[in-house]
Amino acid sequence: MSRVWNFSAGPAALPLAVLERARNELMDWQGSGASVMEQSHRGKRFIAMAAQAEADLRSLLAIPADYAVLFLQGGATQHFAQIPMNLTAEGDSADYIDSGHWSAKAISEAAPYVRVNVAASAKADDYRRLPPRAEWQLDPRAAYVHYTPNETIHGVEFHAIPDVGEVPLVADLSSNILSEPLDVSRFGLIYAGAQKNIGPSGLVVMIVRRDLLQRAGRPMARIFRYAEHAAADSMLNTPNTWGWYLAGLTFRWLLEQGGLDAMGAANRAKADLLYASIDGSGGYYRNPVDPAARSRMNVPFTLHDGALDAPFLQESEAAGLLALKGHKAVGGMRASLYNAVPLEAVEALVAFMRDFARRHG
After folding, report:
1. Alpha helices, DSSP H only, in the chain?
2. Alpha carbons 317 and 242: distance in angstroms, whole number
3. Residue, of 74 and 117, whose pLDDT is higher
4. Residues that are catalytic
C-alpha cells in the first residue's frame, strides 16, 4: 500500500523519516534486542534518549535555563483542569481568552478549580476573527492569562504573542508548537498535546517557568503536581516511553531540516499556496476567517454548493488525499498543514481542487 497525503487535524501526519527510523529500530533498539517500548524507563539507554530529546527541544526553542521541560501523560484536555490546580489557590481568579472551540473547553474545565474571567471572546462572531488585544479586560491580580494561539476547528491563529504585563501567560500550543520560532521567555507555561507537531497521541510536552512550580496550588495527589514531575525528571511514574522516543526522533528531524526558521518558512509557503487557491477560485471555494487571523496550520473551507461536499470527500480520498472533512461543529472541509505535511501534499491538493471545480462546474 502506498502512503497518502495526510491532512488530518490530529492524530496527524508524522515525518516519513521518523516513521522509517522507528520501523527499523522497532525490533532491536540500539542493539538491545528489544524495542524501546520493552525497555525500562530507569535503564541507561532510555534515560540517555530522554535527556537527548530534552536537549534537542531546548535547542530548537532556545528554552532558557530557568524553565523546566516536562514529558507528561494524557492530553491537553487533562491539563485544562490540572493547570489551575497547580497555579491557583482558593479564591484566585484567572483570565481566559475565548477564541474558539478549544479555548472554550479550557474555560469549562478550569471553572471547577478557579474563578474564570473571560477577558475577551470572539464567540459572537462565530470565531471567525480574533478579539483585538485592545478589547481584552485583564485583571492585573489574576493568577495567569490563558489563551489558545491556534484553534484547529475554526482555523484562527494569533500571529503575535500578546503582552499581558507581569501576569504569567499560559498557552495551549498543541497545534502550532515547533511550527516557527518562538520566544519562550514571554510565557509562564506552555503545554502541547503531541499529536499535531511532536509525535503520537498520549504525550504532553510542557515548558514551565520554574518559579511557577513553587506555587502551592490546591490540595492534590502527588501525581497531579507539576513540581513533583519536574523533581523526578518526568519519571514520577512510568512515562509514555514510545511517545517520548518518537518525540525525540521528531526533534532531531526538525534540527536536520534547518530548525524552526526553515520550518516557519516552509509552513508559510504551504499556507499561502492553499489560501491563494481558495481566494482565486472565483467563489467556488471559500474560507470564512478574517484574513488577518487565518491559521497556517488548519485551513477550513467550504464549497459554493454544499451538495458537492460528499463527492469532494469521496473523490479526494480516492486521489490519495486523506482526512479533509471539516469538524462537525463547522462542517465543510479542513486541511491541516502541520510540519510533517510537505509542500508536495499541498500542491497535490490544490491541483485536485482545481480539477474538481473544472469537472463539477
Report:
1. 16-25, 44-61, 76-87, 101-110, 226-231, 241-256, 259-279, 309-318, 343-360
2. 29
3. 117
4. 102, 172, 196
